[in-house]
Amino acid sequence: MPKDLPETWRPALGFDGIYSVSTLGRVRSEPRVVVHSSGGEMRRVGRLLAINLATKYPTVQLCRGGKIKLRTVHSLVLEAFVGPRPDGAECCHNDSDPMNCALSNLRWDTRAGNFGDMVPNGTRRRGARHHLAKLTSEQVEAIRSDTRTHELIAADNGITASNVSHIKRGKSWAWL
């Protein structure tokens, strides 16, 4: 969201009057009166909630009816400003940064759309960046130009002949 636009708050879906979320990805509790289990009333002061950054996605703990729910901040923002999650949709971060929960960076999309963001944002682990990669880009280029049998090429590179075949036909490492 552009910095010159004011922060807007809306009630968190399913937590009306208890919690609100902002277009900048902040979550707050609303000032309210809570009926204690003994029947007495307690005044709660509204405050910004602490965001848990221990997992891949920022989360907050929301309490309703004595039950605590752990919710991701990005889901709360989209539900409040865009609407409930459509069937089969995921919350997607346009810049692939899971810590950026501003509304301007979020959208509902399919899993394919979410994975589609990874290549242009440079967050997809493919090729030599993948943790199971056995080859480098240079080795793949050499394999493609090698005219020996697939078995000989495979033996020299520590892979199988079918891997060599996939590389030569463009089924593997197709982006090179």
Q: Work out the radius of gyration.
A: 25 Å
- Biggest β-sheet: strands ordered side by side in the sheet: 1-2-3-6
Distance between the termini: 35 Å
Shape: elongated
H and E order = EEEEEEEEHEEHHHHH
Record field, number of beta strands: 10
Helix segment tally: 6
Q: Share of helix among residues?
A: 25-40%
Unreliable segments of 5+ consecutive residues:
none
Largest sheet: 4 strands, antiparallel
Task: Quickly give the structural class.
Answer: alpha+beta
Chain-averaged pLDDT:
87
Question: Beta fraction of the residues?
Answer: 15-25%
Describe the structure.
The chain has 176 residues and is an alpha+beta fold. Helix content is 26%, strand content 23%. The chain contains six helices and ten strands, in the order E-E-E-E-E-E-E-E-H-E-E-H-H-H-H-H. It has helices at 73-81, 111-116, 118-121, 137-145, 150-157, 161-169, and strands at 9-11, 19-22, 27-29, 32-35, 41-44, 47-48, 59-64, 67-72, 90-93, 106-109. The chain has a four-stranded antiparallel sheet with strand order 1-2-3-6, covered by helices on one side. The protein has a two-stranded antiparallel ribbon with strand order 4-5. It has a two-stranded antiparallel ribbon with strand order 7-8. It is elongated, with a radius of gyration of 25 Å.
